[in-house]
Amino acid sequence: MSAPTAKPDPRRCPLCGQANQCGATRDDGRGCWCQSLSIPAALLAQLPPETRDKACICRSCIDAFSVQPRQE
Predict the structure, then answer these.
(1) Domain limits of the chain?
(2) 58: how many CB neighbours lie within 10 A of its CB?
(3) CA–CA gap between residue 52 and residue 31 (Å, rounded)
(4) Which of 8, 33, 45, 65 could join 51 via S-S bond, C-beta 3.0 to 4.6 A?
(5) How far apart are CA 9 and CA 37, in angstroms?
(6) E strands of the chain, at which residues?
(7) What CA–CA distance (Å, rounded) separates 2 from 4?
C-alpha cells in the first residue's frame, strides 16, 4: 500500500514551495495575477501531475524559466 499523497497547497508554488501570491485563493472575485500571463508549456510540464490546475507557479519561477537559455 502506498503512502497518501499530500494535497497541494494552492498558496504555495508547486516548483519551489514559496508563497505564490495566488489571487484565486482570495474571495474578492479578482482572480489571479497569472491569468494574464502566457506560461510556457515546457514550464507547466515540470509540474508534478498532482499539482496541475491546483496551485499557481510563483512569479520567481516563471521569471527564472524565462531567462534560462534554450537548449537545442
Answers:
(1) 9-37+46-67
(2) 21
(3) 17
(4) 8
(5) 21
(6) none
(7) 6
